[in-house]
Design brief:
single chain; alpha/beta; Aspartate Aminotransferase, domain 2; four-stranded parallel beta sheet; three-stranded antiparallel beta sheet; 12 helices; binds pyridoxal-5'-phosphate
Length: about 375
């Protein structure tokens, strides 16, 4: 097996993959309607449950062809009963995406907004639920990838359940990285795409959710054909297959990614991401960079960094300099402040971050940005 040029992706997914995951896609051609392929997907669906400690008698996983946003779309449009309303606990770009989905489907919703650098106020969440018995679905984002703030899903989930609502959480940027337990975290539905925590390829997304709730949603209003959770679930249960053509090679890569996930182990993988995250902070501290979110609120996976106040600093130039040397950094997603992001996803370790900071320092020097950087 020839090794492939290794790029260090510090963007918030897709992430750096192993060569074994890359090569897992090189397989003999196969028609995905063959029993052999359905068998592979069955194993994949079962193995996904283990990541969040979901038992197969309570939860199921449903695969979709699409990027992670498809999961948010599907959960919201499929799991809202007639006459029900969605409550989005919103402190960032990804929960705003859920609000936009409600708008596009014309669904009744409450956008419970908080500042992007603040945790949601649980008292306000409870008030919203108490004052509006129509709320049947509560949605939020675990790690708001735009800033790296970690939301208190366990508490929000408990409130959702107290007031009889289903709780859907966008865990795209935590699942298979930060340990999650659907029971302890009060999660009815969580989701991710294959290119983030399981370090595989783009194009495959999955929802892990309570089977009883999916079955109940059979008679809910049907708002989409391609993106209906029950329809896809039912097809899987009856045939073992995706309703429409699956991303075949991407599925082979996901199976390999998952195998490597279990080989590394939940705790060891989280410890590695933490090492990477700490190395990012050490490197930033050394150069004098400031971050946006309070340290104790950070997810441990994404750091949002303020642009220095220096006329010579150009994100594009720094980006290009690093990119040419195999390191990808990423712009921020906060409308009010100029930021860039460094993420601890993917098959990387501490040494990669040390190597990155050598390059970043050289980039700053090349463009005469003062070190330590100024604010
Ligand atoms: C990556 C990500 C998604 C999916 O985004 P796509 O652009 O569809 O890949 C959704 N939610 C969160 C929190 C994410 O980090």
């Amino acid at each position: 097996m020839e090794s492939i040029k290794r790029n260090i992706l510090l963007n918030p997914g897709p992430s750096t993959t192993t060569d074994t995951v890359k090569y897992a896609q090189v397989v003999p051609d196969i028609c995905p309607r063959e029993k052999e392929f359905a068998g592979l997907m069955k194993g994949l669906r079962e193995d996904l449950l283990g990541i969040v400690h979901a038992k197969p008698e309570d939860y199921t996983s449903v695969l979709f062809c699409g990027s992670g946003t498809i999961n948010i779309d599907i959960c919201i449009n499929s799991l809202l009963p007639e006459g029900g309303k969605v409550l989005v606990v919103n402190n960032g770009a990804y929960s705003t995406r859920a609000v936009e989905i409600c708008e596009y489907y014309g669904l009744p919703y409450t956008d419970l907004k908080f500042a992007v650098d603040e945790l949601p106020d649980l008292k306000k969440v409870e008030e919203a639920l108490k004052n509006d018995p129509d709320i049947k679905l509560v949605h939020t984002t675990h790690n708001e990838t735009g800033t790296g703030i970690l939301n208190p899903i366990k508490e929000i989930g408990a409130l959702a359940h107290k007031y009889g609502a289903v709780f859907t959480v966008d865990t795209t940027s935590t699942l298979a990285m930060r340990p999650i337990n659907v029971y302890e975290d009060n999660i009815d539905f969580c989701m991710a795409s294959a290119q983030k925590g399981i370090m595989a390829m783009t194009g495959l997304s999955f929802i892990i959710g309570k089977t009883s709730e999916i079955i109940r949603s059979k008679d809910y209003p049907r708002r989409s054909y391609y993106c209906n959770l029950y329809l896809q679930y039912d097809y899987f249960e009856k045939t073992g297959e995706m309703h429409f053509t699956p991303p075949v090679q991407t599925i082979y890569a996901a199976i390999q990614g998952l195998k490597e996930y279990y080989e590394e182990g939940e705790q060891a993988k989280w410890a590695r991401h933490t090492r990477v995250f700490n190395a990012i902070h050490d490197g930033l501290d050394e150069l004098g960079f400031e971050d946006i979110i309070k340290r104790e609120w950070q997810s441990g996976l994404v750091v949002s960094v303020k642009y220095p106040n220096d006329p010579n600093f150009s994100f594009e130039k720094i980006h290009d300099y690093c990119y040419e040397r195999g390191f990808t950094i990423y712009p921020g997603k906060i409308s009010t402040t100029n930021t860039f992001r460094l993420c601890a996803l993917g098959a990387i370790d501490e040494q990669d971050i040390k190597d990155f900071f050598v390059v970043l320092r050289a980039a700053l020097e090349e463009y005469n940005v003062a070190i330590p950087v100024r604010y």
